[in-house]
Amino acid sequence: MKRSARTLLLLAALFTLTGCAGAPTFITPNSSISADQAGLYRILIVLSILVFVFVEAWLVYNIVRFRRRDGDDSLPKQVYGNNRLEIIWTALPLLLVGVLFWLTVSTVNAVSAPAPLADDLNLQVVGHQWWWEFDYPDLGILTANELHVPAGKTVQITLFSNDVIHSFWIPQLSGKVDVIPGQTNHLWFKADSLGEFHGQCAEFCGLNHANMRIKVVVESQADFEAWVANQQKPPAAPQTDLQKKGYDLVTGGICNSCHTLGEHKSEKESNPQTPAGPGQAGIELAARGVGPNLTHLMSRSVFAGATYELNETNLHRWLQDNQSMKPGNDMSVNPSASDIEALIAYLTTLK
To answer: Which DSSP letter does residue 75 get?
Structure first.
């Protein structure tokens, strides 16, 4: 029985650890923010281990040293009223808490947002159930799920929510910041090196909260400028009759009520008289569309909240039965087989 219990315990531990495989973590940072957070975390872990080992060792020592022995009912020497000991075990925890407080305040100051500079990359991020919208207002780019930024450049992000409370978190690049309806929040980061980094909504926001993910592509300045140039191009024009039918479905048919195609205006441009009250910009920004902008859809590698790889096969599955892939999402249309064929023919040209 004991062997079986140990085996089950080991299997349960291994099963639990498999859930951590490949998960993004701030312990492998790619920005000064995550590096400072990881440094504080390691110090806290080390100090906690030292305190635990000392306390447990002292406890075991006293249990063994002063255990009751046969024929000996005497009590060990009592230390009540020993001023020196009471000062020591009061002062040490206070000193430890003071050190932790100082380290925490230093880290908070280190990761605080720097003053915005003229050459910073400005982003507006809108949280939807269950996907992220990325607006580059200075560049005229509106995209979703996959975020592109250049390495070594400070990124200033303004956060809005279109529905419920979300939380924007890219562990290797930034800390968590809540995304709250009617409220404007901010965060910043500067990626140190090139690569792909993954994030997650960190606030339970409904049925598909776990599938509200983020993909960040950190690239060189030259590659980023090439990406920007492509994103600023107009959407591809249909070349065949089938593509023309798909184009009509996107711009004036079943897709038009939720998705946009082509140029978009920033909140300030579209509503120049809008007062700048708290959250007002986010309300206007979030109201532009229910679904992602499709202008350069196939330039992204992921879709549906960065849950699925974006390719023709998955896109076909999505158009056939998106609710089986992401239950509860807002896309409720059921296009016919011929409409799906036309949509695929046109959407796959949007690169």
So the answer is: P
